[in-house]
Amino acid sequence: MTPFDLYDANCRIGPTPWGGVDTGDVAALLRRMDLLGIQLAVVSHTMSWRHDPALGNRLVLRCVAEEPRLVPCWVALPDTCGEVLAPKQFATEALDAGVAAVRIYPDDHGFDLDGIDFAGYLGAFAHAGLPLIVDLAQTTWGAIETAARLHPELAVIVCGVGYRSLRRAAGVLDRRPNVYLDLSDLSTHEGLEWLCDRFGPRHLVFGTGAPLRDGGEAVTRLLWSELDAAAVREIGSGTLRGLLPGGVQ
Predict the structure, then answer these.
(1) CATH class of this structure's domain 7-243
(2) Is the pTM of this model over 0.90?
(3) What is the mean pLDDT of residues 208-220?
(4) Which among 40, 196, 209, 249 counts the fewest CB atoms within 10 Å?
(5) Domain spans of the chain, in order of start
(6) How far apart are the C-alpha atoms of 50 and 67, rounded to whole Å?
């Protein structure tokens, strides 16, 4: 166990075409969390990403129902094709089901994060206090900043931000206090320390990218950093704890 609580904002269960560091099921996730000292994970299902969002959202609820350390994350997309609930109903049912956050895949699911078809969902999630999780590879910094600017109460967690994106990331963080970065790909030398020095730890959340990435990478990046204990504690769990809706923490 680590001396700090670690809450994973970037985690999935289920199979993928590329495999992963383990089998991708709940038992494997819990073993990995025990090994790495991770207390809680916000979890979406790959079924919602790779096949059927509505079915995957129901499936993740069943998979984590008996595991208090795992909190469900639903996947959203516009209702233009009738695949998911309308915005307000989606957000209401998500909260009623104990959902902790919403994840989106704009590129893979064929919509624009900042487009008119998804605008109602952004407003509904902001009103409900549901954080929005998106991989940088699925969208653009321009779309992220537009969504964050139009919905200042919406927490937008951007995952998979590598060192080649830090200049653009810094500009967005400077202008948009409701944008956050996860640790899964912050691999530049002392990049985490630089971000904390410039913007403070509150813009960063712990996230592993599991099972597509080895969670040990993010754990090492945080716990072996040169940050003081207060910053490590805030990034490890404090920031995410403050972003989650009441009742799911």
Answers:
(1) alpha beta
(2) yes
(3) 94
(4) 249
(5) 7-243
(6) 24
